[in-house]
Amino acid sequence: MSPEQVRAKELDARSDLFSFGAVLYEMATGALPFRGESTGLIFDAILNRSPVPPLRLNPDLPTELERIVIKALEKDNLRYQGAAEIRADLQRLKRDTETGRLAGASSGSVAVITKEVAPLSGTQQELTAGLVPTSAPPSSAAVDVAQFRKALEDSGSDGGSGRRACRNVCLVQSVFSSA
């Protein structure tokens, strides 16, 4: 939920980009960017706090990915203003990673922390089954975006949140699969 949504203000594409940043954050770190014991505390975190820097939770991430995620989660006009901006930054990250200019995630994968904040529900276990390769080191793994997308699509109707998550994952996949 974007700061604009918390404040019941008019929404635009920047709200979607904030939500996309939250999905990227969770994919890259294995943790939610804004947490709290109650809805009020979560809203306060969204409005007034910065998330823990992604590199602190997953030191294997490229620094540039952290910059992209943090920019997507900005609370003011410093946030991405349009999808083309974040797409260009993600494509640049992909290019630089593939050419060896950056160390980090390989094409089609996103490095994630496998340590869970809370036990997975049955549905979450079904969604993530088979996504972590057995050859991955115990502290982190590569999650195949295409497999994650298929798992979300196969998870059934959920009133929209799964479709939104799938749309976000599809965007990540299109960035990492395009030239």
Blueprint (SSEs and pairs):
Elements: H1 3-6, H2 13-29, H3 39-48, H4 54-57, H5 63-72, H6 83-98, E1 109-113, H7 122-128, E2 140-144, H8 145-154, H9 161-177
Antiparallel strand pairs: 1-2
Helix pairs in contact: 2-5, 5-6, 6-9, 8-9
CATH T-level topology: Transferase(Phosphotransferase), domain 1
Q: Give the total of domains.
A: 1
Strand order, main sheet: write it out: 1-2
Mean pLDDT: 73
Report the order of strands and helices. Answer: HHHHHHEHEHH
Short characterization:
Helix content is 53%, strand content 6%. With 179 residues, it is mainly alpha-helical. It has a two-stranded antiparallel sheet with strand order 1-2.
Index terms:
179 residues, mainly alpha, Transferase(Phosphotransferase), domain 1, two-stranded antiparallel ribbon, 9 helices, 2 strands, 6% strand
Describe the structure.
A two-stranded antiparallel ribbon has the order 1-2. With 179 residues, it is mainly α. It has one domain (3-177): Transferase(Phosphotransferase), domain 1, CATH 1.10.510. It has helices at residues 3-6, 13-29, 39-48, 54-57, 63-72, 83-98, 122-128, 145-154, 161-177; strands at residues 109-113, 140-144. Helix 5 packs antiparallel against helix 6 (83-98) and helix 6 (83-98) packs across helix 9. 23% of the residues are buried. The protein is flat. The chain has nine helices and two strands, in the order H-H-H-H-H-H-E-H-E-H-H. The model is unreliable at 103-121, 123-144 and 155-166 (pLDDT under 50).
